[in-house]
Automatic annotation (TrEMBL):
Keywords: Coiled coil, Cytoplasm, Golgi apparatus. It comes from the Eukaryota. It is found in: Cytoplasm; Golgi apparatus. This is RAB6-interacting golgin. GO terms for cellular component: Golgi apparatus. InterPro entries: GORAB (IPR007033). It comes from Kingdonia uniflora. PANTHER family: RAB6-INTERACTING GOLGIN (PTHR21470:SF2), RAB6-INTERACTING PROTEIN GORAB (PTHR21470). Pfam families: Transcrip_act (PF04949). Belongs to the GORAB family.
Amino acid sequence: MQTERQRLEKQHSQLQIVKYSSNNNLTMSQHMEEKEEEITKSALITFRAKEEEIEKKKLEVRERVRAQLGRVEEETKRLAEIREELEGLVDPMRKEVAVVRKRIDAVNKDLKPLGQSCQKKEKEYKEALEVFNEKNKEKAQLITKLMELVGESERLRMKKLEELSKNIDSLH
């Protein structure tokens, strides 16, 4: 639409230039005026046609918007009815559910310190078990050492007994 106006203005200005430059020739001037009038009428007709087309499209869009609004209003009413039905539903077990939930909350409160106590005792147990295992390992090492010492002692005693036995045999 803007380009159409620009084109018309350009044509008008060109006509004006031609009009002023040919001021000397009256017939040419009249001819130009007729042509200018013809162009102006054509431009006005085109402009009016465009305006009518725009108005027609605006009306179509308005009508579509109205139709959409009508559908939206219907859907809103349906949703409101559904919401009312949902709010109207009463849970027949509501009281029992509330009692059970309160008991669950109470048990959860009792479980928390018990869980912490279990974790603490489990930690103490693991530490005691670790100390126990270390002492058991130390005991096993000491028993091994004792066995070695007893074995060595027996070997030395046997050796000594054999020597004594030889000494006794040599005396005979």
